[in-house]
Design goal:
- The structure is a homodimer of 134-residue chains.
- Chain A folds into 2 domains: 74 residues, Multidrug-efflux Transporter Regulator, Chain: A, Domain 2 (Orthogonal Bundle); 45 residues.
- Chain A contains 6 helices and 2 strands; from the N terminus they run ααββαααα.
- In chain A, a hairpin with a 5-residue loop joins β1 and β2.
- In chain A, α3 crosses α4.
- Chain A starts with a helix and ends in an 8-residue tail after the last helix.
- The mean pLDDT of chain A is 95.
- The interface between A and B is large, with 59 and 59 residues.
- Chain A binds a DNA duplex (30 and 30 nucleotides) through α2.
DNA sequence: CTTGACCTTCCCGTCACTGGAACCCCCATA
DNA sequence: TATGGGGGTTCCAGTGACGGGAAGGTCAAG
């Protein structure tokens, strides 16, 4: 398979696939003309990484997941540990975003949004209190 | 004020303040020795930007907010429009993260996490269905 | 033989900083 | 006067995960 076909099948841009080869996530063979020649296994790995990325795993985490994926003697506990850590990061991010959302929604709610210059949003941003209190 | 004092007062790293000058968010004067000499107004602008950043506004958005902040003839509607757009982005991100969270939580829940190699998480990642269905 | 769709590599740009090197300035103390 | 330490300055490179685009090689069809 050439890169366009694999890209379509894996749902990834060709650029991304080249990048993944660049950083060593996959090692497709080459045809005589220099084109990348992808095997079924390459496609599976790319689709796997694509799904892991869509769940928010970083490339480093994907590399680890891929190693576990390919290790028939893996312990599922190792996979779960990775996933649990990532899940915690996602939840922390959600908490952070919800705090932003709450503050911002309050400010937006308080602002009349008309032609007049008085603006509770700008007032909120210019006074301590809406910033991160660490 | 020198940069360290302003950094402490605004709650921003000195590096960040230099960066903000670099991209034109602030224009502090210079002392004869070449040191940045910050006025109160600079400090206020930095604190303002710091709070906007902590609410997730991008630098581009901060620049726009700062311009409105400094424009006494602004319409609060312009500020509100910016904030509403940003709020929508935050909410979209939250929705995205919650979808990730749900999928990942399911997978984690299904995985025994022991020494055995069988792993529903890896199975989930290797089969279509948990990826972004676009 | 040409056209157009592929493929290749390479380099720069993104975003908002962060780290580090190399160097300058100012004050206090021995 | 030397020196030491704690400011400050600039500039360069790296981060993560690609994306855009240039310059050029390859392949199949008409």
């Amino acid at each position: 398979m050439n890169i366009a076909e694999v890209a379509k099948a894996a749902g990834l841009p060709a650029k991304t696939i080249r990048y993944y080869e660049d950083i060593g996530l996959i090692q497709p063979k080459r045809s005589e003309n220099g084109y990348r020649a992808f095997a079924e296994a390459d496609l599976h790995k790319l689709a796997f990484v694509g799904r892991a990325r869509s769940l928010g795993f970083s490339i480093v985490e994907c590399r680890a997941l891929l190693a576990l994926y390919e290790d028939r003697a893996r312990a599922s506990g190792d996979v779960k540990a990775l996933a649990v850590t990532h899940l915690a990061q996602i939840r922390a991010k959600i908490v952070e975003l919800r705090a932003m959302e709450a503050t911002l929604a309050d400010l937006v709610h308080a602002c009349s949004g008309d032609h007049r210059p008085d603006c509770p949003i700008l007032r909120g941003l210019s006074q301590p209190g809406s910033g991160d209190p660490q």
